[in-house]
# Entry
Amino acid sequence: MDTISDKFLSIPDTSFEKILIAKGIDSDGVVNQQMLKSDAETVLELDLGILEYGAIHDISGIEGFTSLKRLYANQHNIEQIDLSANILLEEIYLAGNNLSSINVSKNTNLVLLDLIATESVVTKNIEPYTIAGGNPAKEIKKRFDKNTVEKLLNLKWWNWDIDTITKNVQKLTTNPNDFFNEFNI
# Structure
């Protein structure tokens, strides 16, 4: 027998739920601090840029969007976010929030993380392939080990033509060592 927590996600932030309803994602169409997990599980891209329903403060429930590849939640009042359950995420846009904490510890597909927060001050250089956040910005984690980063920098892939980049982007961003092995680098 299914329990309520098996079928529903808690969506405590009214603004978040109103946006989900406006986008046709929360299928019951009622602001009731919950939505069906099955509604969330099929969403690949979530743009929360609609501000007419107010700024989102609490993005609890995002963990149920397990197929999510792109998240846009710019210019809200989000202070902390745990995206560790959203392991398919490739791009995250959180600029203009008041972030003090972000968990992307299991996001191995992450290619882009834009989270310059409102009034953030980046006081020092951020090393290549490093995820940083907070105020002041601090290292959260390295995307790859030191040897892999060195190989990626030596490749100078950013000088390649767009077709070559497009052809190889998945390999280079998800598991560059497979790419290196394939081409004896």
